[in-house]
Design brief:
heterotetramer; A: 484 residues; alpha/beta; 4-stranded antiparallel sheet; 14 helices; B: 443 residues; globular; binds pyridoxal-5'-phosphate
Chain lengths: 484, 443, 484, 443
């Protein structure tokens, strides 16, 4: 394994915060008191919370060590399907940290927040151009909240038509947030199977689309990495029955400059700025999940909205049909700043980003053909779904392959999703991986597959290099210990 | 382009391996009518240096930074953030990793979030906390939904002294569910009037905020008793968790769910987002809890380790039956809060909280002496409402020109509070800042 | 070894830069050309240097991985004697990076550089107060250049007295830079042994101090961590013979608020801002080595110097007796900013820093007594020198102990220095280490000493956890490969 | 104090273990007359927030940042530094480690410095480079001293067109050694007049800078031939290494030592320091080289690794016989340069260098049209000397008020160059910036 990045090295243990420190220590500078203390009614005063006291260097070491136990995009290739783990440019973080952005109060008068409002306004226009949709709200705080917003728009639309509808079509390949968001909004998700080619067939939709169905939640490209080629026909069927088409655009990284979502018949679309638009994932957020709609649905968008009048920007809540407010303020502004910076840095080259994302995925697919089973052997878009089918004889599973990849120094792909592929291994390289890096990943997979045949225990015991080995998740869930 | 590593050669070789002649061919499956015609009509590509300048120009228009003295709170608080946090949080092992689905290479995030869950629980006096939600507003919505699941009642009572935006978000979340939201008025001392619920049954939750939107400290104990009498859970919302460095915490007063905004703990204000949705409750309710949870466990060798747990509540397992649709949460903000809480420690927290209150009390007194009487009589923490002399709004505009933002006019939120302003003074406001405000107001 | 920080974990290999990349890639944004290219005389144009082309993410991953192979103060305890590896506050780095400081051109007119000049002026005054010396130059770029400046002042002084002198007294405990700096300045170092107590005796100095000896270079506290108790007598002898006393103040961390170097009879002193004043070492610099002199030597200080006139600051070279210029501009300004920030952050608490630095060293000494041999068992100052004497029977050396400490997760102490202690192990905890951390270090040493008896091979083979094991330094020197 | 972890209890326990009664006792060995009386009379302790404000106030007085347009070069160059470098260099594993004496836990610094040594050698066309010296000025001094050691001659010839500060530093280093420094004048085209050395013997080194202080490109080939004829080494100094992205490098012209300032490669100007002393030479001279060297080797398992090597040249081993007294060098600046060189790559370097020259040529031409004729005729890179119309110094002051610094007046450095200004235009100067300068000059 000489040439692969994975190696053994020194890492440093670190206790839990409250196993360290001493009362009386404080790792933060407190301002000098310059006003008199005012005694407080004893009845209101509580106990001092039992937080440990640490010096500044103790805090710094603690979190420095913790950070070193993590693997990020900056550590190496992170082909986590459906997550678009592309490079997160450092300049964008720096821009979001500019004083004027990072320390701006959200309730500043419009006069004192022109820059932020303008940025939001322009980002909305940019996303509209990129998707081909008409109007955008940046408010949803992540993809799932974007979905919720979208579902509420479907709800509001049907209510406005005087006919609330109960059901929504959700394909079996959908991400878990789709049915969950639909349900949160009171819709009953109705499943539909993808066809033999891994994509939806108009026939299947026609069969279940009815007057009590609010619409469909389609993911395009879908979670098999396949373009929903019948999207227009499907949209027509849904529209023909009075429904609306919601598109989960988490996979937009395949389509920039290539696909026009509006023309596909999509009425509502959400994007993940923390995927397609390069904002860092932060170990699980914060993200941002803007929604884009056609002109006729614009009136339902969440409030407040940024409006432009001449060259002045302001916030308006004056949209009586709006689904309302989704966020304490306007959404993840700092994330928007990073996405805006990314889009301007790329400009029309966003198309080339999608080109290369798709090229990389197809290349992985071509090179791993015969090594891993390919769920649907057709041209894929930005990601490609394999499985452990060919390895079953050696009793090695997707999980084992994933864990073994860690020893090789790669982040594993997404596993066991989408659910329609048993033992799925979902690889999304993204466009920022070079051919060399991808070749190395391919070699790693090949080597692991060989190990699976020759010495499956190597995979079963993996990972061995990491600070902790496989964790007992069963007992974690059976006897939950959630605080210390 | 520096983000795109492919050389022409690379592309040619890769196309060959795929068996395609050009990049266009890779998109052949997109029906012509679904394609984007022509190139994207967007500006750029900008160089790093053009971008930086563009962004700086936008940022400089903002009423933020050292030149401005901003007495705004109302859900977003200006607190000092140690340089250590900015540095540590910027380490790319924290920023560029995904949700810790592979625990063996995510122990850093996992342990930090576990620490966050613990310290937040200790602060709020609750048994458990989740790994974060989006913000204080959606945390309230999730708390109300959880209450409905737990109690199987379909009405919730929400205080009108709860942040108007939080209430609006809760309404948005609840609008399509058919659950009823009953609003509880506030009384003359600025606290929630709970008489509406006493004796009534069928509430899933009674939700109040403390300190509330007016900065007033609610009587949580009484609210708990009354709520529990009606069979409802007490949901305590908050926008300023620092207050619990000084005040009795929700748990000790009997709250069932404590949820709110954690931005005060080391998260930059950033024009309102991202925030940090804190959600804490009792262990009994864990399976109804929304959002991710990190739990402690052991690895194959018996060593301590951490992992996401109880995922069967979540959308990726339970799909439409999940306790919430949330997936990506605000993890990095939770880690920031862990760093902040670790830096401050218990004693530091108490000192800082006391200082916040002392500053606000000073400002309150000085404003009173300038004719701005407190609108409510209940005790407050670091913000409070004053009744301004009529016509003050002109002076308010004049103060803006002097780079002073003299609080939030409340008329837009509560028409009955015309001429009332909500002012906040944290540790970032010096006596000199406050004296300058009062001097300007007087002049 | 459960409770010690050292553990095994995953680290990532990374090739050399030129083993990566492809020509044509570029990881940096180049500005748009906005003027016409002007052709260049062919005869002047060279080949394009053979630098590899990498994308931005390749650069980021490369150096991220490299960084993870390093151990810094932020990783854990770094008790490297003579180096004062105290915590380096993050706020200071941030301040040095302020636009006005980091992007200031050194030749800006004085009008446009008041802030920097004022900072330098004030830092000089602060260092004068802390040391008890009269005047300060911040120009030397590190300790050794401070020594050179000092030696040149001695040279200039004697020349000004009309009698150049050839020799200089350098104790056997001196740091290698002392004789090297003296020699660079044309002085012949004359050795003197420290007395039986580890410190210089007036008698020894009296014996060699003569009219051809320019003075003495004394380190106080010396490199054994001992205060030169006879410093005043020694100064008197040197002065009596027309010489000057140079003090190497690299160990000033022991003395802040406690010692008054001026009163000790010292004429010239250098400080290491990158030790006592908390500026980060950067893996070997940049540092800053200000020199402090008595009033009568002020005229010899390097130029330019910052002068204050009313409340205006400017630079002046108008010092005819000056030894001249030592730096292309004014020294390591960014380092000065950090030291200034540190001093203001500490204020009079600098004394407590020295108190605790000395407390920590004496505590280590007390607790390790009998475990490791103590070279001079007397109250020490900020550091304490042990040796491997007690371990010789098990054929285990200082080097082995040091390497084994790495496996335990600690940075080793300074070893084999000072030269007067055979197998020296020089421990300087610094004041920013907590009692708990020091206790853990002590336990590690005890455990290693036990291993040395029971299983010396464990030490001989150490470190085992690190990405690379002991390196073949002999062949590195015999067949030097300095470029790839 | 947040940097000091000791509680009262800790101190008491530790004193007890030591057997001392109080902290004062630990200092008993300091004779009373050597003690500091009373407390330190210094301001502070300042809180982090006071400190930040104080520092910002100082920083804001500086003529730096986006508002200023500064046409200064002369040894310190404004170049764009990618955000990646700022981030990567700030990672504390790089910043908070010491000199890599323990190679097993310093491979990051060691490999990075090895890469620096390699890329710098390739740039300069030399066989080897050391791990850095303090700056370009001391690098010249060290080069002259090394030349003396190598040739055993005791005179050096130094061009007057070499940076005046570098020459002054060399004089400082040499003043007490007895070695003679002969200055070589420059001629009318701005290049060094080498006639003084031809035919003469006994020089250890001939030192010239290219591009020289006037921005003029020297004829290194000819200088090498003449130097070697006299038995001297050719020492090529430089302050702008970016020039070698375009120009023939010292090695290919026959230089024996190439030494200079590397600030241009990713090191912030920081009011002149720290810089980066680059020192490169031929393998034959390695044992006479000053400063640290990183070498490649193998570990016990045969794996590639890096370590400091040839330390027998250095002060900590050789003491007074060392090749230099340098110990701490400017390692982090070398790592910054490695990052910068890696980011740019060969092609990027060539483009950037060409752009620098193009900008300067544009400015030169525009200034000429405004009556500022080039003072020297030799070709230049990104800076050049113009003769200003007399009386320009008033306009110069006026320009300062407009936040434009119109180059460096040379009268203070070369009295004969009265009314001459050295102007520099790097890639950071836009056409608009330069046009504005010329417009202002004309007005
Ligand atoms: C296809 C798809 N849809 C929706 C989501 C949900 O997005 P978020 O995690 O931002 O809520 C994801 C994220 O994993 C996804 O992959
Ligand atoms: C006692 C002593 N003197 C002088 C020096 C030299 O300082 P610098 O490395 O900054 O040149 C050192 C540094 O190691 C030292 O420990």
């Amino acid at each position: 394994m000489k040439d692969f990045p994975g190696a053994n090295g020194l890492v440093l243990n670190e206790r839990l915060l409250w196993e360290k420190g001493k009362p009386g220590r404080c790792g933060m500078s407190l301002p000098e008191a310059d006003v008199d203390p005012v005694p407080m009614d004893e009845n209101l005063v509580g106990e001092i919370p039992d937080w440990p006291g640490l010096s500044e260097v103790e805090v710094v070491r603690h979190f420095t060590r913790l950070s070193q136990w993590n693997y990020g995009v900056d550590s190496g290739m992170y082909p986590l399907g459906s997550c678009t783990m592309k490079y997160n440019p450092k300049i964008n973080d720096q821009i979001a940290a500019l004083n004027g952005f990072a320390h701006a109060h959200p309730l500043l008068p419009a006069l004192l927040s022109q820059g932020a409002l303008r940025l939001m306004h322009e980002l909305g226009l940019l996303l509209a151009e990129i998707t081909g949709m008409d109007a955008v709200s940046l408010q949803p705080a992540a993809g799932a909240q974007g979905e919720l917003a979208g579902m509420l728009i479907l709800f509001a639309y049907h209510r406005s038509m005087g006919k609330p509808r109960k059901k929504i079509i959700v394909p079996d390949t959908a991400h878990g947030t789709n049915p969950a968001s639909a349900a949160l909004c009171g819709f009953k998700p109705v499943g539909v199977k993808s066809g033999p080619l891994g994509i939806l067939t108009p026939e299947a939709i026609a069969q279940i689309m009815d007057e009590d169905t609010a619409g469909i939640m389609v993911t395009n490209p879908n979670t098999l990495g396949l373009f929903e080629e019948h999207i227009q026909d499907i949209s027509e069927i849904v529209h023909g029955n009075g429904g609306l088409v919601y598109c989960d655009g988490a996979n937009m990284n395949a389509l920039m400059g290539r696909g026009h979502v509006g023309k596909m018949g999509v009425d509502v679309l959400h994007l993940n700025l923390h995927k397609t638009f390069s904002t860092p994932h932060g170990g699980g957020g914060p993200g941002a999940g803007p929604i884009c709609v056609t002109q006729s649905l614009e009136r339902f968008l969440p409030v407040p909205r940024v409006v432009k009048d001449g060259d002045r920007y302001s916030l308006s809540t004056d949209y009586p049909d709006s689904i309302g407010r989704l966020h304490g303020f306007y959404g993840s502004f700092a994330v928007m700043v990073k996405a805006y910076a990314y889009i301007l840095s790329m400009g029309p080259l966003l198309k080339q980003a999608s080109n290369l994302a798709v090229l990389n995925a197809n290349y992985v697919k071509a090179r791993l053909k015969g090594v891993l089973d390919i769920a649907y052997d057709r041209p894929c878009m930005h990601e490609c779904v394999f499985s452990d089918k060919l390895q079953r004889s050696s009793k090695v599973t997707t999980l084992d392959i994933a864990k073994r990849l860690i020893d090789y120094g790669f982040h594993p792909p997404t596993i066991y999703f989408p659910l329609v592929v048993s033992g799925a291994i979902m690889v999304e390289p993204t466009e920022t991986e070079s051919k060399e890096e991808i070749d190395l990943f391919i070699e790693a997979i090949k080597s692991i597959v060989k190990e699976a045949e020759e010495d499956p225990e190597k995979l079963k015991q993996a990972p061995r290099r990491t600070k902790v080995r496989r964790l007992d998740e069963t007992s974690a869930a059976r006897n939950p210990c959630l605080t210390g | 382009m520096r983000y795109l590593p492919h050389t022409e050669d690379d592309i040619a070789l890769m196309l060959e391996a795929i068996g395609a002649t050009d990049l266009d061919e890779l998109f052949a499956m997109i029906p012509p009518q679904c394609r984007k015609d022509g190139e994207l009509r967007i500006p750029g590509p900008l160089t790093e240096w053009e971008l930086e300048r563009t962004a700086q120009e936008l940022a400089e228009t903002m009423g933020a930074g050292r030149d401005y003295v901003v007495f705004l709170g109302a859900g977003s608080y200006e607190h000092f953030i140690p340089a250590t946090i900015r540095y540590l949080l910027g380490r790319s092992e924290f920023t560029t990793s995904y949700t810790p689905y592979q625990p063996e290479i995510s122990q850093g995030t996992l342990q930090a979030v576990y620490e966050y869950q613990t310290l937040v629980s200790r602060l709020l006096g609750m048994e458990i906390a989740n790994a974060s939600l989006y913000d204080g507003a959606s945390a309230l919505a999730e708390a109300l939904l959880a209450s409905v699941r737990i109690t199987r009642h379909d009405r919730v009572a929400v205080s009108q002294a709860l942040h108007p935006h939080y209430r609006q978000v809760a309404e948005t979340y609840l609008q399509s569910t058919g659950f009823e939201v009953v609003e509880l008025p506030f009384d003359g001392d600025g606290r929630t009037d709970l008489s509406r619920i006493s004796g009534e049954k069928g509430f899933a939750a009674v939700a109040i905020q403390s300190p509330n939107f007016f900065g007033c400290i609610e009587d949580l104990q009484r609210a708990a008793n009354l709520s529990h009498d009606t069979g409802a859970l007490l949901v305590v919302s908050f926008s300023e968790p620092l207050a619990y460095g000084l005040l009795k915490n929700p748990g000790s007063c009997g709250a069932d769910i404590a949820c709110g905004e954690g931005q005060s703990f080391g998260v930059p204000q950033s024009f309102g987002g991202p925030g940090l949705g804190i959600f804490a409750t009792r262990m009994a309710h864990v399976r109804n809890m929304p959002g991710r949870l990190v739990g402690r466990t052991r690895d194959l060798d018996g060593n301590r380790g951490f992992t996401l747990t109880l995922a069967t509540r979540e959308q990726h397992i339970r799909r439409e039956k999940a306790t919430s649709n949330i997936c990506t949460n605000n993890s990095l903000c939770a880690v920031a809060a862990a760093m902040y809480m670790a830096s401050l420690g218990g004693n530091g927290l108490r000192s800082l909280a006391s200082m916040n209150r002392d500053k606000a009390e000073y400002l309150k007194r000085e404003l009173a002496s300038a004719g701005f009487s407190p609108r409510f009589s209940a005790p407050t923490f670091n913000e409070f409402v004053v009744q301004a002399p009529s016509g003050f709004h002109q002076a308010y505009e004049r103060l803006l020109e002097k780079k002073i933002v003299a609080g939030l006019p409340l008329a837009g939120y509560y028409p009955e509070l015309d001429d009332c302003y909500l002012l906040c003074a944290t540790e970032t406001k010096s006596k000199a800042d406050m004296d300058a405000l009062v001097r300007e107001i007087r002049s």
